[in-house]
Design goal:
heterodimer, A: alpha/beta, 6-stranded mixed sheet, 4-stranded antiparallel sheet, disordered C terminus, B: mainly alpha, 22 helices, about 75% helix
Chain lengths: ~300, ~525
Amino acid sequence: MTTAIAIRGLVKNYGRTRALDGLDLEVSTGEVHGFLGPNGAGKTTAIRVLLGLLRADSGDVHLLGGDPWADAVALHRRLAYVPGDVNLWPKLTGGEIIDLLARLRGSTDRRRRDELVDRFELDPSKKARTYSKGNRQKVGLVAALASDAELLVLDEPTSGLDPLMEAEFQRCIDEATSAGRTVLLSSHILAEVESLCDRVSIIRSGRTVQSGTLDDLRHLTHTTVSARTVRPAVLDDIEGVHDVVVDGTHVAFTVDPAGLDEALLRLTAAHVEALTCHPPTLEEIFLHLYGEEPLHDPSTE
Amino acid sequence: MSEYHGTRTLVIAAFRRDRVRIAVWVGAITFMVFVSASGVKQLFPTQADLDTAAAASTNPAIIAFNGPPQALDTLGGQVAFQIGSPGLVLCALMAILMVGRLTRGEEESGRLELVRSLPVGRRAPVAAAAIVVGTMGVVLGALVGLALVSQSLGPRGSLSFGLGYMMITLVFMAVTLVTAQISENVRVVYGSSGCVLGAAFVLRAFGDVRGSVLSWFSPIGWMQHARPFAGERWWPFLLGLAATAGLLAVARSMLDHRDLDAGLFAPKPGRPRAGRFLGGPVALDMRLQRGSVLGWAFGLTVTGVAYGSISNSIESFVQDNPTLSDLFTGGGAGSLIDAYLATSTRVSALIGAGFAVQSMLRLRSEEVAMRADPVLAAAVSRTRWALGHLVTTVLGSIVVLGATGLSLGVSAALVTNDRTLVLGLTGAALAYAPAVWVLVGFALALSGLAPRWTGASWAILMTALVVTFLGPVLSLPRWAFDLSPFEHVPLLPAADLALLPLLVLGGISVALAAIGVVGLRRRDIG
């Protein structure tokens, strides 16, 4: 598998503030890669480095096999970008801006452009000054999706879109991946991430804290277990078991993958009468990974 | 009074937010008056000097720029004549820029929506802007009056002069409160109020040279016909008050009948597709600047026609006063007209340079507004993006200067029956292009190397304006004149065409532009 984006040890300072502090990111060709992290973690800075708008202070950055700073123009013919806040020229109409951006990139597919304008229910004859936030995002999305770019760089592209348009966006991304395109998607919408992303990278304070498939991430966090046993089960001393709540013969706890086997053995020894066991929700994973506490990750210990 | 609820808080907030800007405007104009008044005193130490100056200043060319000659054989009369007109224009500009910024600027940015969602009355933001700028006018008038008194000029004349500065601020405050209701775009607000100011200046110039009633249609004319230091009349200020009150009533009625964010006219739908031409950075910037270029060219055409059409008055003036013409031309009537036309061309070129600086600085304002990102994220190099703005600015400045020279030349040719003036003055105006481009190059160099300091580009233009308008009054040293690129351009058609200084200016502007592009290629965007 080839890589579309490879970032290793990226550092970017703004004066004394360190915006990126050794960021790593690897996106394989053809995948939808979620790029997640709390506000101010450095996602937009990293994307602006990828676009050659900012110069990296140190680290290796490879984009579509080139250097995003030195080869900006050639690389930009092969990618399309949608910012989280699409800023448009107030005097031009949406239709003019879409066509202009297509020409600046060097490719125009008129049929596809018209189809997308219809699908996103955008009125292209309105001046950009009069567009709402959601309509400005649509202009950016149509301009990017109508291109034949092999890489889509999307920085919170659906902010301000209504649920119908959000669903349309997800269909467009599915079409893009079946056409073999690569997508880097920064998003705070968990349902969007869950349904679209093959793999995700989570960054915090300018550093990558976790990277992998959603299943990998689930595997790294606690499973929640609730059980009723004939005899009270003793679980407190097991490594990896947390938050034990005992109520007579009822016990509830969370457990790391490392302690799961031992915990289940103890429960069976106490004769299980009822057992529910569920993996962490995506929301729990993110709250856990975005939060301040360090991650219990056996593989890095 | 619920429509005005919250005005007090908004006034305090505006004073707090714009305290530096307000202090700089008021302080700078007061300082200019103070320094110029003391300059005039040094320039004419004896009554004999004043008498000579009074005779020389009845030249219609000077009257067209400065205003009616009133009591020019007194110090007060000279002060009012020399600094009255540029000062009144500055006061009007202060009012236009401050009101536009506080009203439509806030509205366009979306901040007003947030304010209006609070318990704040519909008219409160506009009333607050009027109070803030009105206060600036009153304080400025008082300070200017005190500055003149401190130069031991008469208190009655100083009061009248100060009242003039106050009243012109109030009138253009009210004008801009009206234009701010008409257009949803703050640039259009500045432009249309600027047109009113230009018209006021031109009407005044016409009326003063011809001695006709036209000056009475100009607010600037009212202030000058109040005759500070020349037998003060107080009733012209009532015209200013009446105009202010009338315009405020118009603005209030427009405000009450429109929606937030809307202008007086509903926006028309535009093209659903881009035209064939709109396909690159140059085409994009030309499209965005089209209105601005046409507006500046139109304004300078009006100015050129006005200045050109009074050039024959100079001829008759010289015929009537043979001794005087000898006194300050040393030659025939032709050279006096030429000197007048050359000065008019330089003044127009300086005004036109305002277009060029503003146009080049759009490179930076596009970047700050994050509109550079979509262009640079497409297959457009930074060099090509910068050159797009540079090409538009260079071509636009040629259009603006050409329109200036052509209109001045055609109108001067019509009234003097000298057809050679058409080409001659067009060429004379275009000869200022390299000087204008030095400012453009400087703006681009700053955008590349020191993007936070791009505002300094205006400082050079201000320097050039001060040198040309006030340099002689202030008796500035030679090196101060040399600082202004415009002083190196030959005063065509009065002087001979010298190519070397133009080539040097051109070379400097190319070098500055190159530095800017190199800097831009090396720095972060945003």
